[in-house]
Amino acid sequence: MSASPATWVAIAAGGAVGSVLRAAVSFGFARAGWPLATLAVNVAGSALLGALAAWLPARTATPAVTAALTVGLCGGFTTMSTLALEVVQQWQAGAPARAASYAVASLVCSVVAAAAGYAAAR
Length: 122
Hints:
Distance between the termini: 27 Å
Strand content: under 5%
Largest sheet: none
Low-confidence stretches: none
Number of strands: 0
Helix content: over 70%
Number of domains: 1
Mean pLDDT: 93
């Protein structure tokens, strides 16, 4: 599948907004035992992506708008790579139970949030 130049620009714009929002959330959370900022953005982003997946097709959104909001905004806002690094860092810091519980909680909460967002937008 190829994308038009307008779609690429829309993805970049959405990604820029998502990345800035991600940084704002990160700066707003104090570091505790769990990386709460990453958990918060991944759960919120999953809920938003689920809602957009249900809502956008009914609105006949253009491919550029759909890509800007899903790939761009949600992709820039959420962060699997940071989650993975934080799990590794907790494990290496001698907290394997915290690392495992954080990984499981992140996955389960994000999947539940995506399902809830999808259901709410239908």
